[in-house]
Amino acid sequence: MSQSISEKIDLKTAIIIGINTIVGAGIFSTTSLLGSKIGPAGIITFLLACIAVWFIAQSFARVAYLYPQEGSIYNYTKQWAGHTFAIFTAFSYVIGTLTAMGLLVKIASQYLHDIIPALSANIWSLIAIITLFMLNIAGAKLSKIGQYILIFATMYPLVITTILCTLNINLANLTPFMPGGLLSVISGTKVAIFGFFGFEGIASLFRIMHNPQESVPKALRITLICVSIIYLIFIGSILLGIPQEIFTHNPNISIPQALLVIYHHHTYLIQSIGISIIFSILATVHAVIWTGSEFLLSITKSIQNKTIKNLSTKNYLNQRNMVIASCIIITLACISIKNLSLFFSLADIFLLFAYICSISALLFIKEEWKSGQNYVTLIGLICATIIFSIALKTLLVHALL
């Protein structure tokens, strides 16, 4: 991709990318699970996740402002833990993010297979990844256009689903409100927070943003506020509009399938929601490949190794090749990972580890303690650590079974 000034992105485009990165498969895949495991109290779970992510994002925005160089997570962690640990943290983040994208592609592929069963889900996976690869290779200008188009595909199922659920609101759907107890509400945050992952990708756009010192923190905050409002309205309408038994009888039911139980005479409308969800998922993956390749390029160049330096000198380490590397990782994850049950826990472990290491840099700055900013940082670290622990416990339980 050309890095000319004319191709640098502005605040509005960064926010669009942020919304596309966050809003997608997360909200659609988590809602059914929360509805079946937690019940209407799932709205509290999402509210807790909103609060937790807000404090994490505030600290992330602060550290992005103080250390505005490219490299984001690597650069932040390096300030207090050194080069080697920072590289480890950065690659942990990359692996977690791109592996998650591989699983999202798998979900989208299954949707596509259901619509056109002539092609297997694996073939659809390859088609999706190749298409996304070509869009990213085409350059920043086409990517910008794609972001504006895909934001409509992302918002359409949210808006239509919200309207349909609102038309079917019944307060009786709120009873019982917390069938799994308070513990289920808290443990459910490991699932709910998945719907917010991706906000940190905005910081990875530092190299291609106008006025990044101010734009990056501002884009993070605005994006998170918009997404939180969207999610709470969306989740609230579903919990009020869809009877609990639809989710409890089939925990793996998708939102379109749940809506079809209620609106069985509106098949085409419900199918349009399913198709839009596919585009929403692909929009998420598309945006992450774009931001992820930028980040992967910056941290790879940071490795102090003769081979890496030679590759950089010969211009093998460039944006195009980082997009290729990102797509290869996504493809391997999509093909090799069969068990989706640990999806949320694995994503939490990898990504929250990177968040914790990044914002910990603020704890070593005296001015942050004097200004009181680190009280926000401590809350963010506590929130991230609690959810990380819940996810790790879930992973260990599954490993022992």
CATH topology: Amino acid/polyamine transporter I
Number of E-state strands: 0
SS-based structural class? Answer: mainly alpha
Overall outline? globular
What is the CATH superfamily? Amino acid/polyamine transporter I
Mean pLDDT: 83
Distance between the termini: 47 Å
Q: Under the CATH scheme, which class? A: Mainly Alpha
Beta-strand fraction estimate: under 5%
This entry's quaternary arrangement is single chain
- Whole-number total of structural domains: 1
Q: Count of DSSP helices?
A: 18
Task: Explain this structure.
- This protein has one domain (5-400): Up-down Bundle (Amino acid/polyamine transporter I).
- 76% of the residues lie in helices and 0% in strands.
- The chain has helices at residues 11-22, 25-37, 42-66, 73-81, 83-115, 121-137, 140-166, 181-187, 189-192, 212-241, 244-249, 255-262, 267-302, 306-313, 319-336, 343-359, 366-371, 373-400.
Task: Give me some keywords for this one.
disordered N terminus; mainly alpha; 18 helices; 401 residues; Amino acid/polyamine transporter I
Task: Set out the fold topology.
Layout: H1 11-22, H2 25-37, H3 42-66, H4 73-81, H5 83-115, H6 121-137, H7 140-166, H8 181-187, H9 189-192, H10 212-241, H11 244-249, H12 255-262, H13 267-302, H14 306-313, H15 319-336, H16 343-359, H17 366-371, H18 373-400
